[in-house]
Amino acid sequence: MSGTLVLVRHGQSDWNLKNLFTGWRDPDLTELGIEEAKAGGKALADYGIKFDIAFTSVLIRAQRTCQLVLDAVGQSSLETIRDQALNERDYGDLSGLNKDDARAKWGEEQVHIWRRSYDVPPPGGESLRDTGARVWPYYLTDILPRVLSGEKVLVAAHGNSLRSLVMVLDKLTKEQILKLNLATGVPMVYKLNADSTVASKEVLGDMSGAH
Ligand SMILES: O=C(O)[C@H](O)COP(=O)(O)O
């Protein structure tokens, strides 16, 4: 067994609350989002983990979540690397639109395909495959080597940038990834084998309400 990789999706953002497609736009956390991030941090504190390094995106909602988790585990000053590679999927022309308005305009089915399919990009934006094509190389070069050297690594990022990672880690098919939604602020704790495959996965919270 080598190190530990913890993935956590940012807490509820202002645009999650307003039901807007967000992508690379940069809203902050809501009060609930702050509480969710703190709760995820408390779950990790109770789990007893101490991190060696943290990674997050260049977007404020993930950075704030990362800091709130680190505060909760008593590691407020831990080195944190911010990289655009971990950003949310770029929602292209949908960014800033209301998700219900988009359903009314393009239909429930089409919007679901844009939101959850593997390889159909929203207009002007990234498919999950496109997102994975930048998340996965960054994971391989910057994150995985640290985990394999035995470090405990926190990654605070986004619903779809993390779905693209989880798809590979959990060996999900294109059909299975369609159904996977990650809850805000719920940490997933992966222990990896020396060959980088997953030895164990624990979810510290409830993923069932995610949509
Ligand atoms: O970018 C967004 O709108 C959200 O962070 C994730 O949206 P989704 O649930 O539609 O993928």
Explain the overall architecture:
With 211 residues, this protein is α/β, with parallel strands linked by helices. The protein has helices at residues 14-17, 31-47, 60-72, 99-106, 108-116, 128-148, 159-169, 174-179; strands at 4-9, 53-56, 80-82, 152-157, 188-192, 198-203. It has a six-stranded mixed beta sheet with strand order 3-2-4-1-5-6. Helix 2 (31-47) packs across helix 3. It is globular. 3-phosphoglyceric acid (3PG) is lined by residues 21-23, 88, 91, 115, 158-160.
Key terms for this structure?
binds 3-phosphoglyceric acid, Rossmann fold, 6 strands, alpha/beta, 8 helices, His_PPase_superfam
Strand order of the largest sheet: 3-2-4-1-5-6
The CATH architecture:
3-Layer(aba) Sandwich
Beta-strand percentage range = 5-15%
Would you report the number of β strands?
6
SSE topology string:
EHHEHEHHHEHHEE
Alpha-beta content class: alpha/beta
N- to C-terminal separation?
Answer: 33 Å
How much is the average pLDDT? 96
Cα shape: globular
CATH fold-level name: Rossmann fold
Give helix % range.
40-55%
Low-confidence stretches: none
CATH homologous superfamily, by name?
Answer: Phosphoglycerate mutase-like
Radius of gyration: 16 Å
Number of discrete helical segments = 8
Per CATH, the class reads Alpha Beta
- The count of domains is 1
Q: What does the main sheet amount to?
A: 6 strands, mixed
Small-molecule binders: 3-phosphoglyceric acid
